[in-house]
Amino acid sequence: MASTDQQILEASAKHPPAPNHKYQYGTAGFRMKADLLDSVVFRCGLIAALRSRQLQGKTIGVMITASHNPPEDNGVKLVDPLGSMLEAEWEELSTRIANTNNDDEVVSVYNEIARLYHIDLAVPAQVVFARDTRASGSRLASCLVDGLTAAGAEFIDYNILTTPQLHYMVRCINTQGTSQEYGEATEEGYYTKFSNAFKRAMGNKTSTGALTVDCANGVGGPKLTELIKYLPSNEVLQIKVVNDNVHQPESLNVDCGADYVKTSQKAPPSSKAGPGDRCCSLDGDADRVVYYFKDESNTFHLLDGDRIATLAASFIGDLCRQCGLAEEVKIGVVQTAYANGSSTKYIEQDLKLEVKCTATGVKHLHHAAERLDVGVYFEANGHGTVIFSDRALKKLAKLEPKSPAQLAALETLRALVDLINQSVGDALTDMLLVEVILARKSWGPLEWLQTYNDLPNRLVKVKVHNRNLFTTEDAERRLVTPAAAQKGIDEAVKKVRNGRSFARPSGTEDVVRVYAEAATKAEADDLAAKVSSIITANQ
Ligand code: 16G
Ligand code: MG
């Protein structure tokens, strides 16, 4: 037996899988109760090493996080060289090795993958990893180190980072010394790059009133506190950091954070914000953000991912027009079926931009956005970013401004390219983007809200015996099976004014999710209830 095989065999024996547990690399990697994950994280180390070798030693990232899940959960996901999500084929290989039952088989699956993909096991493998603030993180990181060591990979442990910071590191390392050099692969490099871009994008503008940032008691707290040190003074932008207690990991995502705010449509109970105060919430690993405020009559208003998308698309669209690039640079917005119908209508009819709809999950939106010159993509839940194609970047680099106004627009646009994290949706940089746009427009949250009116909507979870019975088409907007269910949904939708509804199996929980919107809240609630009962009856 080769010595690497022996090392993998011995190390694998120290990380036995949980008995009878079926593991699956889902929409956001493996995610579950932390005590079931040791073997999975160990084996992800093996997969990361193989993937790096397959790509001739490019650096692969591994992030240990369970995002908005409860504190006792954890998860692991792999990051491809440009900071994007792992290629789908490799998700399946990860699932396969995770479900392998004994240590000999782990070794044989490892070697089989190498054979299948013609991987030269002598190529040095490079892996970087980080974790969020969960109590189980350091134990799982040591499982990963065991896997990487057994596979003979070289690695850097970045310790605690936000998910987008890890994606940033991966992209920086892999672009070093190329024309696409992204930045310095250190935390300081991250803060310097984005704070400098923020200063350039703000120009001489200042924001009105403080921004309160709820950090979900997660990794976003300490990282935002660090970022603030690099940002301009309070006169330009004042940020109040709340829910940043990472010393009590059991408080992570509890009654706070982006998922709490989006799902319950209210501010965290701890919020002390007054009417008109601008607030936002990050999730547990700081890759999604939603804004909100209370109006004078204390009514809560959510400014979610759809709102960030429309704000960014409209602002970038205006800048492109001012630069004379409107015809040459194709701007589009990518959404999912969850996007509020009013936002889609606003983008198409008012902003006159193209909208694409994809299946749920960041990687689907990202891939669709890559086909545009400027791809603005956001899920309603606050995951998203804006990406610029090489073609668009070349045009921006070459453009000779013909007037001072054009020069100003061009400089702002160039600063935005640097401000927006191109590797993945990043709550911290998305937040800075929103702050720039609001300051530049001299808008508060009320003006932002008034751009269009959301259709009342309702999202419900339906427990089913087997969610795999439910299959979809048309970017998850229609059910293929059970066929009778879609017929029922079509009929129910027809009876409601401005009605739209769909049902899709969750990629992260054993449920079917039902979304409904309509002209009034009562109709949206009714439609959601009707569609839920159709799902229950047709399984
Ligand atoms: C994951 C996805 C998120 C998606 C959600 C849907 C990433 C990084 N995260 O959290 O984008 O909205 O799953 O969950 O891709 P669901 O399938 O349970 O509705
Ligand atoms: Mg997250």
Describe the secondary-structure layout:
Blueprint: H1 3-13, E1 30-33, H2 38-54, E2 59-64, E3 73-79, H3 88-98, H4 103-116, E4 126-131, H5 137-150, E5 154-160, H6 163-175, H7 187-202, E6 211-214, H8 220-230, E7 239-242, H9 258-264, E8 278-282, E9 289-294, E10 300-303, H10 305-322, E11 331-336, H11 341-350, E12 354-358, H12 362-369, E13 374-378, E14 384-388, H13 390-398, H14 404-419, H15 427-441, H16 445-449, E15 457-463, E16 471-473, E17 478-481, H17 483-494, E18 500-505, E19 511-517, H18 521-537
Parallel strand pairs: 2-4, 4-5, 6-7, 6-8, 11-12, 11-13
Antiparallel strand pairs: 1-3, 2-3, 8-9, 9-10, 13-14, 15-19, 16-17, 18-19
Helix pairs in contact: 1-4, 2-3, 2-4, 2-5, 7-8, 7-14, 7-15, 10-14, 10-15, 17-18
The site of magnesium ion has 6 residues, from loops.
